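TEACHING EXERCISE
Course module: macromolecular assemblies
Task: Read the component lines below, then compare them to the predicted structure of the full complex.
Student: A.B.
Group: 4
Components provided:
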Amino acid sequence: MWAYLERLWHRLGSPRHFYDLAGWWLPWLAVSSLLLLGVGITWGLLFAPPDYQQGHSFRIIYIHVPAASLALTGYFAMAVAGVVVLVWRMKMAEVVLQSIAVPGAVMCALALFTGALWGKPTWGTYWFWDARITSMLILLFLYLGVMALGSAIASPVLAARATAVLAIVGAVNIPIIKYSVEWWNTLHQPATFKLTEKPAMAPEMYWPLLVCALGFYLFFAFVVVLRVRNAVLEREAGARWVRELAGEGR
Amino acid sequence: MSAFAALFRRDLALAWRARGDLVNPLGFFVIVVSLFPLGMSPDPALLARIGPGLVWVAALLAVLLSLENLFRSDRDDGALEQLLVSSAPLPLLALARVLAHVITVGVPLVLVSPLLALMLNIDGEPFGVLLSSLALGVPVLCMVGAIGAALTTGIARGGVLVALIVLPLYIPVLVFGAGAAYAAGLGLPFAGQLAILGALLALSVALAPFAIAGALRISGSQ
Amino acid sequence: MSANDLLLRAEGLTALRDERVLFRGLSVSVAAGEVLRVEGPNGAGKTTLLRILCGLDQDCEGRIAWPRAEAAGRPWREELLWLGHLPGLKSTLTAEENLAWLCALRGRAPRRPLREALAMVGLAGFEDLPAGALSAGQKRRVALARLHLEDAPLWVLDEPFTAIDRAGVEALEQLLAAHAQAGGAVVFTTHHAPAITSRSLLLGKAA
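Instructor-supplied answer key:
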């Protein structure tokens, strides 16, 4: 078992083997995520009961919660990849780190957008400085910083290391930011409704949410793996196996 | 003389020889704050309420602007290379560099802020709390900002990039710093916020030098 | 040659710049007593190689070891003195003040008074002038004064002879030879061919 894991780790560390392995995963990820998303969203939007206070507008959580959760997970995943980049100097971690940034930022923007849509019927305004939404906005800023830094440095190795440092610093900061924003929110004006905060959610609302979340995570993994494969080809463009691959396709 | 002390003294001497430049962040600080009464309303009650936030935002921007050259001049004349090949621990050298910046830029900003607080009609308890929060918070801004400055040192036009990288990281400091003075104005307890700022200061002094050192090694490779 | 004489050993160095290979799988070792000249046309990667050896450029693959420092349990940077093509002087500080902070980075007292070292590189009387007021050649000499002050065994010098007059070049050549003779080692790049070179490394043969 251990030997198998170690072998897998080494294979994942080599761009070429990663490319082959990941090509194998892609169809599975695509099919399973589409299936789960289809089931979860249909269930959540059509069959789950309406909320007794918010009516049908609560159904946005089937998109909003998975997107928000992924945005946060994505940032921490970048920080973990960053540690691997800085400590073990692993090439694949460099690629993974940079491939997460854009999809993570998109999830963050999606969470903000759906939050605003939900805000209109609930608070009567698209934007409200709710603690969670504000935290999400700051997370989007953190993503923008990582993306801007990564694209400003020409050398892929150095760009990856610089973004690794920034992602780690950002990840250390996220709990502090979250705490500060919550305190700031209670100081100024506690919101009456909170998106996603339900003391006890009914199981018939909860199960479709879980299915949706799983579907979102698999879809995110699909996108990241796809981007990693492209980035590997770009970075290894001079290597023989890539040139052979290109010749094969012709 | 240890490497830390030598670099610290060097930076103080450099700042002293170019002391005219030290006035710039202060001028920026004062001008930005005085724009707000002009842009909104000179109503003393309004200014007293939003004043701490204005002073904090202006101080934050002044620190940010002052950071752009923190490592850039060292890079341009080759001094950064000599810091990087030094056998002294690089985080320690980074700490000396930022400490000198705190003394030459941060402390003057804190010393000017009472003047701005008076102009914004902040007095009584919020006045003292605002000053204490700045005294604790501005060094944190310098430490954290230096990470961004170090990361962008190798990039030709890194000015806007530093802001994009550093400003989100500044948010907790802003929230607790301005919030402490705001809470004092409402008669709410504020000691907790000042304690948190102190904790952030300790945390940033302990951890930021390592991030700065790592960032400098990356920037030095470009 | 015993392992103790080996100051630096680099293996499998590969550097790419803008998708162009500067060198691939390059191995370099420097032993005590050697004067190694890195040669090659412009853009062959001479400066890049020196910077990689000094740990200044991390955008490369390969392994660098410092056998003697490792055997003695010393940080390898203590063995190294690097002079790049930028002299590292702050223009508002005087020549002497610049030497003071540069030498202090090593954490050990300089081998002789700073003014004496400045006199040895022909800058007597210029000690108190800000570095910004010195000519390019004089700035280079201030940086070279560190060779008289610090006691690192391996000197890595990028184009040390630029902007220096003929007398200065001769003195520097003698200094490098004496350093190697005393058990030190030198790695340097230059466009003229000094007689002191004991070994050459040619980069960019294909170019």
